[in-house]
Amino acid sequence: MPSVRFTGRVLPPARSVSIPNQPTFNWKADDLGLDMTFHVRIQDSLIIIDCDVNKFDESSHLVPLFMRAYDIAKASIDLAAFATGDGLSAVLDTFTDAAGTSIPLAAQRPSLGNYATAVRLGTGDFDTLLQIVLAEPPLFMALRDLIEAVSSPQRAGVNCARAMRNLWPYFARSGGSHEATGLALRDNLQVSWTYVRTITQTSTRADETHIPPEMMTDVIERAWIVMNRFLEYRKRGGQPLPLSEYPLLT
Q1: What is the per-residue pLDDT across 4-52, written as a single tens digit (0 to 9) for each?
Q2: How many CB atoms within 10 Å of residue 127?
Q3: 34-43 and 46-53: which strand pairing?
Q4: What is the pTM of this model?
Q5: CA proximity to 153, closest of 93, 214, 195
Q6: What's the pLDDT tens digit per position in 149-184?
Q7: Which SS3 state, helix, strand or coil, does residue 102 take?
Q8: Distance in angstroms (rounded) separating the CA atoms of residues 249 and 118
Q9: Cα(185)–Cα(170) distance, rounded to whole angstroms?
């Protein structure tokens, strides 16, 4: 039976965290025919998660293994943080396969950068939007949710939906209906409520690990596009985006 390993760290480095418990978790992914047993050790802020599997193919199994291992690491550290009152977080940064070959781990979707036309590093637009994001907690949180959709793909549906809901109040009017808010969003961003609903409805799925990867990719890309349009709208002083530049998304 192959055994692979994930290693990482507890942050911040100023805290040395050890958990005497060494729990074991079993998990089965029926759609992959994969049986997994995770063994957790956290000592002096070093996280080691060994995983025994009935089979292993890197192209098919690394991502689901990482998602489960990351959940285990994060839950362990979150519970320890609650027990001690420390502000802690967990990072898994290395994967070692059954042959002993290690590779660095870094969550990324470079293709999403192609949708971020409203802001580019090193430009004045970055400075302008940074001032806006820092001044508005709902926007700050919406942006954070989108980034966590990349770093925690197993939670992408919930994070993308939450990001969209944080933008919703910008278009709501006192006493206005849900439909009126949707129309305001459409008129300002050229994005229909149907387009946004495709993003938000994934948060109602009971088990996101069973959402098809192609569907989750579509959800994240849609959320990125909506956020980009919102940032462009704010950068332009709250002026509706012209249809000539931004065709209506349905």
Answers
A1: 999 999 999 999 999 999 999 999 888 888 999 999 999 999 999 999 9
A2: 10
A3: antiparallel
A4: 0.82
A5: 214
A6: 988 877 888 999 999 999 989 998 877 788 888 899
A7: strand
A8: 17
A9: 8
